[in-house]
Design brief:
It is built from twelve helices and 14 strands. The chain is an alpha/beta fold. The chain is globular. Bound molecules: S-adenosyl-L-homocysteine. S-adenosyl-L-homocysteine is lined by residues 112, 114, 116-117, 154, 158, 189-191, 212, 254, 256, 285, 287-288, 290, 330-331.
């Protein structure tokens, strides 16, 4: 059986032709799905014979909501979702003045091994398909009853390690028959897989690229992120410059600030040197503390000092506002606590 959400409208039209059905049915079916009708039998304008055929070929891969946590501090909502094969992922909905944003997962787990991140502690199980990513948006949008206008690929997983599915997903999210979320409203965050950054640049997409930099020298970056053994900061910056040249888009550099690790004045100054002539923006993220590791948040005073150094050199910088601090909203934390309690219940 095929997940119908993994098909584009063109794919479904082709299936209709191959199965001696009228092409226009494809659009009707997608219209139902995007109206949150997720059972072929409820699609009233589709003839019974076609509904039966559809049921033999396809399923509508909507994950089950295992948990939905709402923050008491802000309006952040976090979902723990279970796919048909029993795998669970999480996604987070954040409400801002400019619209509603969803942070989706691109893989089940992650293999990148960043030392501060909870998503990677159990490794990667598998990639998510484009339809499975799309379904995160569908489920969340239905649950909150409001339109989601922005997507960030910043949940569990490394999007550029699942490149083809991610590109497909972006195209589906853009599609006129679907959510119509423009590329400008989509941000992709990567730990820096250079060949894929180049490929993305050559596509000249209008998405925002966010790079998880987190350190301004290779020795330090290697101690935080294994990917730094494969690609140096110099190579990464060159790839980013290529991306900017091709797309004319400003890049966001994410920098998770960790007490006594990368929060010194010298770190800020090195960062300035590295990025000062680039079309970019730095997003400082006071590290989300994860029980399993030793990375701790700097004091607010140190965060402010670090910020002041960057801005005094004219680098546009923001400090990420913590959202959903009371609901395990950091990458992978909810899934991890779910997996742990499940193991305990099963006596593993
Ligand atoms: N794999 C991608 C996207 C997922 S992680 C990437 O590396 O960019 C999304 C962002 O959250 C990345 O910048 C990641 O480094 C950061 N992150 C992960 N765990 C974190 C933590 N405990 N505190 C702060 N930022 C974290």
């Amino acid at each position: 059986m095929t997940n119908i959400l993994d098909l584009s409208l063109e794919d479904l039209k082709l299936w209709m032709r191959e199965n001696r059905e009228s092409e226009f049915r494809a659009k009707q079916i997608f219209d139902w799905i995007y109206k949150n009708v997720w059972d072929f039998d409820d699609m009233r304008n589709i003839p019974l014979s076609l509904r039966q055929k559809l049921q033999n070929y396809f399923y509508i891969g909507i994950p089950k909501i295992l948990q939905c946590l709402k923050s008491n501090l802000d309006e952040t909502e976090k979902f723990l979702l279970e796919y048909a094969d029993g795998n669970v992922i999480e996604c987070v909905v954040m409400k801002y003045k400019h619209g509603i944003s969803i942070c989706i997962s691109t893989q089940i787990g992650c293999k990148m091994g960043c030392k501060f991140c909870a998503s990677t502690l159990e490794g990667v199980v598998r990639n998510l398909t484009a339809g499975e990513m799309l379904a995160q948006v569908m489920v969340a949008q239905k649950k909150i009853g409001q339109r989601i206008s922005n997507i960030v690929l910043m949940g569990s997983g490394e999007p550029l390690d699942n490149y083809d599915n991610v590109i497909k997903f972006i195209n589906y999210a853009n599609a006129d028959y679907g959510f119509k979320i423009g590329q400008r409203h989509i941000t992709l965050s990567t730990c820096g897989i250079i060949p894929k950054i180049i490929e993305l640049a050559d596509k000249k997409m209008q998405i925002t690229l966010a790079i998880s930099l987190h350190a301004s020298n290779d020795t330090l970056r290697k101690s935080m992120m294994p990917i730094a053994y494969k690609y140096s900061i110099k190579e990464l910056i060159e790839a980013c410059k290529y991306y900017i040249e091709k797309t004319n888009k400003r890049i966001t550099f994410e920098y998770a600030l960790v007490k006594d690790v990368n929060d010194r004045r010298e770190d800020a100054e090195m960062l300035v040197k590295l990025l000062k002539d680039m079309l970019c923006h730095i997003n400082l993220i006071p590290v989300n503390e994860v029980r399993e590791n030793k990375f701790r948040k700097p004091s607010s005073e140190n965060i402010k000092t670090f910020y002041n150094i960057l801005t005094s050199f004219g680098i546009e910088t923001t400090i990420r506002k913590e959202m959903g601090a009371d609901i395990n909203a950091a990458c992978g934390q909810l899934r991890r606590s779910y997996l742990k309690s499940n193991k305990q219940n099963k006596g593993v």
